[in-house]
Amino acid sequence: MKQSKVAYSKEVGKAKQELFKEAFKRVDRAIKLGFHLEAITIIESIICDRLETIISIKKDQKIFPGTLGPLVKEIMALNVAPIDLLHDLDEWRRHRNQILHQIVKITNMESVNWKARYKFAREVAIDGRELIKRVQKLVQKVKRESSL
């Protein structure tokens, strides 16, 4: 059975606030301790949630949780995000896929050592952490505009 996001209520808002608080703490700690794959995974979940919020506001309907690629395409179709943000989201998605799905695969000989790959994972995690801030600003803008 496909799950949809629950309707907003004060209880849901409070629970979500607590989850976000813990997720941000965990991302920051994971980056600090070198658990970049964990940080990237949590960052993706946060970004997807924020994009789903934008889509549900703009479409005025409940939506099903989605993955990053289709969500970015849907945000693009809704024409609510600056093109540079969409580009950066898609680039981050590609880097995320490269790290999470190809960490041990050799597709070229440019970067075959573990240190180089894990350094790249750190960069992707840090970039993702910054990207969350930009996505959150967009969420706030969309919420303001929808309440006018």
Note poorly predicted spans.
Answer: none
Helicity, as a percent range: over 70%
How many strands appear in the DSSP assignment?
0
Residues in β-strands, percent: under 5%
- Main sheet specs: none
Order of helices and strands: HHHHH
Helix tally? 5
General description of the model:
The protein contains five helices and no strands. It has 148 residues and is an all-alpha fold. The protein has one domain. It is globular and about 50 Å long. The N and C termini lie far apart (36 Å). The mean pLDDT is 90.
Can you tag this structure with a few keywords?
single chain, 148 residues, mainly alpha, 76% helix
Secondary structure topology:
Blueprint: H1 10-33, H2 36-59, H3 68-78, H4 83-102, H5 114-146
Helix pairs in contact: 1-2, 2-3, 2-4, 2-5, 3-4, 4-5
Quick structural summary:
By secondary structure, this protein is mainly alpha-helical.
